[in-house]
Design brief:
Number of domains of chain B: 1
Distance between the termini of chain A: 18 Å
Strand order of the largest sheet of chain B: 1-3-8-9-10
Helix content of chain A: 25-40%
Order of helices and strands of chain A: HEEHEEHHEEHHEEH
Distance between the termini of chain B: 28 Å
Oligomer: heterodimer
Helix content of chain B: 10-25%
CATH architecture of chain A: 3-Layer(aba) Sandwich
CATH superfamily of chain A: CheC-like
Order of helices and strands of chain B: EEEEEHEHEEEE
Shape of chain B: globular
Radius of gyration of chain A: 17 Å
Number of helices of chain B: 2
CATH topology of chain A: Chemotaxis protein chec
Number of strands of chain B: 10
Structural class of chain B: alpha+beta
Radius of gyration of chain B: 16 Å
CATH class of chain B: Alpha Beta
Number of helices of chain A: 7
Strand content of chain B: 25-35%
Strand content of chain A: 25-35%
Largest sheet of chain A: 8 strands, antiparallel
Largest sheet of chain B: 5 strands, mixed
């Protein structure tokens, strides 16, 4: 079987970038209105990376992050992550629940904060995916997002399992967002990682009229 | 005895493996559903570590196989690598860690249950090769970073909430 990943051209990469752009722009707008703060985003990066290089995209396998994960099913399948550095997640949730003591750093963050984070994950991934669905005309059914505060490697590898059956590399659509005024501090960037399953690229390109 | 050099920490990435000798130690970071399998010879103070992702190479849909990715091929390949380092396979013992479920979903998607399946497959392969499993820290819902010291044959396991634990 010819590996789908090996057939990707630069036109395809541009399309995937546009997907990241549209999805993350909608999510950033949602986040911005939720927090009443200005949220900016970087130009999406679409990269083909090894699993080990994937670990470096958010500060290394051992870096502790807040991760939201969901599976996408439907016309196109894949995994989606919204990864926030702890410090940034703390600030977002403190502002959402109006509690400046809230922290994911201590072992027992409050239920309210956790459920606010889950809801934030729901809203952001929902706006990312509905924008993507509108743009491509594909029916996408996301699972309810799960939340984990743990090492980035342990979190992201959950999304590499499906891919690892077919490949040793992964195509990742990576868009980072940050609060206005914090763009020079990489440690406070949040990341959307969209990892389409290898068999799904054909259906994405077909939906957009590119073979 | 004169120490000729200071000890190094050899890092093993996801779906990779390596072998070390005392005074070096061997480490892998951010194990989630993956399993870190350490095989060691306590008489020679040599140890190997493989960071496996999937239970069985029959799941592979690729033409070439990275042996270190799968429990069945990874353990075999690590035994071979240890033989080349002068270890007799009958002396090998094992310690394993990982196989967590990082996210809880009510889905029938099999890849969500991959942690326990990986652990099961590792144990089966160890028993096929007559390698005794001395200690394990598996399952649960936390990521793990592990480091093995072939001098003491201790496996240290770090999690975000429970700190460091030795088995």
């Amino acid at each position: 079987m010819m590996n789908e990943i090996q057939k990707i051209t630069s036109l395809h990469l541009d399309i995937l970038k546009e997907i990241g752009n549209i999805g993350a722009a909608h999510a950033a707008t949602a986040l911005s209105s939720l927090l009443n703060r200005k949220i900016d985003m970087h130009v999406p990066k679409v990269e083909m990376v090894s699993f080990n290089d994937m670990m470096e995209l958010a500060g290394g396998a051992e870096t502790v992050v807040v991760g939201i994960f969901l599976r996408i099913e439907g016309d196109s399948e894949g995994s989606m992550f919204f990864i926030l550095p702890i410090e940034q997640a703390n600030r977002f949730i403190q502002s959402l629940i109006n509690d400046d003591q809230f922290s994911f750093n201590d072992g027992q963050p409050t239920e309210l904060g956790i459920s606010a984070m889950q809801e934030l994950g729901n809203i952001l991934s929902g706006s990312y995916l509905s924008a993507l669905s509108d743009f491509t005309g594909m029916k996408l059914y996301p699972t309810v997002p799960g939340l984990s505060v743990d090492m980035f490697g342990a979190i992201i590898s959950t999304g590499l399992i499906e891919i690892s059956e077919v490949s040793d590399q992964v195509i990742v659509i990576n868009t980072s967002i940050f609060e206005d005024g914090f763009d020079n501090r990489n440690e406070v960037h949040g990341h959307f990682f969209l990892l389409p399953d290898p068999d799904s690229f054909t259906s994405i390109f077909k939906a957009l009229g590119v073979s | 005895m004169i120490q000729s050099r200071t000890s190094q920490v050899i890092k093993v990435g996801i779906a990779q493996m390596d072998v070390v000798k005392m005074p070096d130690t061997i480490r892998t970071s951010g194990l989630g559903s993956c399993v870190g399998v350490v095989l060691y010879d306590e008489t020679k103070n040599i140890a190997g570590l493989v960071h496996i992702m999937l239970p069985d190479s029959s799941l592979a849909r690729t033409e070439t196989i990275n042996a270190a990715k799968f429990a069945n091929t990874g353990i075999k390949a690590l035994i071979e690598k240890l033989k080349q380092a002068g270890v007799q396979p009958f002396r090998l013992k094992a310690k394993i860690a990982g196989g967590a479920q990082m996210f809880k979903f009510s889905t029938d998607n099999d890849s969500m249950r991959i942690g326990p399946r990986n652990v099961e497959a590792v144990k089966k392969e160890l028993s096929t090769n007559n390698i005794p499993l001395i200690a394990e820290d598996t399952g649960g819902g936390s990521g793990r970073t592990i480091e093995f010291n072939p001098a003491s044959c201790q496996l240290s396991i770090r999690t975000v909430n429970q700190g460091v634990n030795e088995i």
